[in-house]
C-alpha cells in the first residue's frame, strides 16, 4: 500500500515547472529489497529471527553521528551481496525493547544473526574492509 501511494505521488509530479527538475526515476533493486526498517517486535521476529537468510542488524539512532556514516556504508556492501544477506535497521529510540533484549549499550551496534541466533557483533564504526570481512564471515564466503 505504501509503495503504491509513493508511486502515485511520484507519477503525479509535474513534468514542467520548478518541480520538474526534481523528478527522479526509481526502481526496486536487490539492494533495496535486502535492507528494511524494523517496524515492531513482531516484524523483527518474522523478518530477522525467522529469516532463512543471514541478517545483519544495525541498531542506530537519528542523533548518532557515527551511525550516519556506518549505515550507508553497510547498506552498500549488503546490496553488493545481491540477497545473500539481509540488513535490518532498528532505531533504538523507537524500539527500546529490542535494544534492551539484545543488550545494546551503545550505538552503532551491529549484530550478525543466523537462524535466529547472534553469531557475531561489533560496536562502533568500521571501515569498508572490516565490514566486508564481517559480512563474508557471516555468509561463509
UniProtKB/TrEMBL annotation:
A single cellular component GO annotation: mitochondrion
Tree of life domain: Eukaryota
Gene3D superfamilies named in the record: Glutaredoxin
Alphabetical GO biological process terms: cell redox homeostasis
Boundaries of every Thioredoxin domain copy: 24-140
Matches recorded under InterPro entries: Thioredoxin, Thioredoxin-like_sf, Thioredoxin_CS, Thioredoxin_domain
Family of the protein in this entry: Belongs to the thioredoxin family.
Name the record gives this protein: Thioredoxin, mitochondrial
Lineage: Eukaryota, Metazoa, Chordata, Craniata, Vertebrata
